[in-house]
Write a structure and sequence with these properties.
With about 160 residues, the protein is mainly alpha-helical. The chain has one domain. The protein is built from six helices and two strands. Strands 1-2 form a two-stranded antiparallel ribbon. α2 packs across α3. The longest helix is centred in the N-terminal third of the chain and has 33 residues. This is RDD family protein. It is found in: Cell membrane. Keywords: Cell membrane, Membrane, Transmembrane, Transmembrane helix.
Length: about 160
């Protein structure tokens, strides 16, 4: 069991860490650019997977061709899960733009949390695109799916 006093102190340290405005300087713009880079990366990975699945389809008497039905989400979710759920806590686009995803409680982002973060992003965009404008008014420039998962995007190395 963990001591509530220790947990409270750790929470205060994390909260005070996010009080530094420099962590959020330019995050919205960097996040948009990172998304575009990552979108291109996913398209590239799909283009690599298409001929591989085609050849694999002959070896499996056509069964592998069923992967085409779910190829895009499968590639995108795997990409997000491995990159954000990895040691850098950022996709390739996020690394290039100098941002990373962090949890408010200080724990590392795992594969499942990264995948759920992506799914909630797509769901909010599909249901009502203006929901993605939340960072214009929310503290720490967070999106609604950041709020739901207790995450925040910050500048790397600050």
């Amino acid at each position: 069991m963990s001591d509530p006093q220790i947990m409270h102190t750790a929470g205060e340290r994390m909260a005070s860490r996010f009080d530094d405005w420099r962590l959020f300087e330019g995050v919205r713009t960097r996040r948009i650019i990172a998304f575009l880079i990552d979108y291109a990366m996913v398209i590239l990975l799909i283009l690599i997977a298409v001929p591989l699945i085609f050849v694999l389809g002959f070896a499996t008497f056509g069964a592998a061709w069923l992967l085409y039905l779910m190829l895009s989400p499968l590639v995108a979710l795997t990409y997000v899960g491995w990159t954000i759920g990895g040691p850098s806590q950022a996709t390739i686009g996020m690394r290039l733009t100098g941002v990373r995803l962090e949890r408010y409680d200080g724990r590392k982002i795992d594969f499942l949390t990264a995948v759920v973060h992506a799914v909630l992003f797509w769901a909010s965009a599909a249901i009502f695109l203006p929901l993605l404008l939340a960072p214009l008014v929310l503290e720490h420039k967070r999106t609604l799916h950041d709020l739901a998962l207790g995450t925040v995007v910050v500048r790397s190395g600050r």
